[in-house]
Amino acid sequence: MSGRVRLILVRHGESVWNVEERYQGQADSGLTAAGVEQAEVAAAELLARFGTPDLVVSSDLPRAWDTAKAYLRHLDLDAKQDVRLREADIGSWAGRTFTEIAEEYPDDLAEIGRGADLRRGGGETFADLRRRVWQALVDVATMAAGGADGGATVVVFTHGGPIRVAAAAALGLPMPGHLSFAPPVNASLTVIGYAGEQKNNSVVEYNSPTARAARATRAD
Q: Which active-site residues does the annotation give?
């Protein structure tokens, strides 16, 4: 790679299940009216702060892709979808409220709070999530750097879980390092300076809100 790549991670706008305090995982409930507005605000801030990026990539889940489309309307760029940028697979917990899960699985939630990496609802572990998300970011950073003379900028539309594990991976924090990071709010920006897989990467900015009344949920 030649030069540092700036990875700008954008959490999707507010979804219906964010408002209803339901676990989402890889299921999807669509953006609320507020979420659509947040996507437009995030797009304006991205354009004002970072100009035209070298590459745009998004999770294929509708809440992330619809957030990305608000930004893409202002650019003469095609975006790539990458399933590796999806939220964690949480199996049978998807669609259920936080209250229901807390009542049914109090021991699991207590263990998770202490750092245990359980398969929530029979889905993925956070280690699984971190491996696939970080590899996706390494791949897009390498692709962007290959087409740029110096530094490159990549805008990535994704979810709360992937942003937390990506920040931990960038800093080389051992599992469960993501617990050091608060859940990102809807339509927030997190900026990672990527210099290479074995180099000194950095988290330049974390969870910077772009919209008022944006939500931070315990799970995405």
A: 12, 87
31 with 15: CB under 8 angstroms? yes
**What CATH number is attached to the domain comprising 164?**
3.40.50.1240
65 is in an annotated binding site: no
Query: In this structure, what token pair is assigned to residue 13?
Result: 């706008």
Is residue 216 in a domain? no
As for how many domains the chain has, the answer is 1
17 has binding-site annotation: yes
Domain interval for residue 79: 5-208
Q: Does residue 153 lie within any of the structural domains?
A: yes
218: pLDDT strictly greater than 60: no
pTM recorded for the entire structure: 0.93
Identify whether 54 is part of a domain: yes
Q: For 37-74, what is each residue's pLDDT tens digit?
A: 999 999 999 999 999 999 999 999 999 999 999 999 99
> What gap in Å lies between CA 29 and CA 165, rounded to an integer?
23
Q: Above pLDDT 90, what percent of the chain? A: 84
| 12 in a known ligand binding site | yes
d(CA 27, CA 187): 19
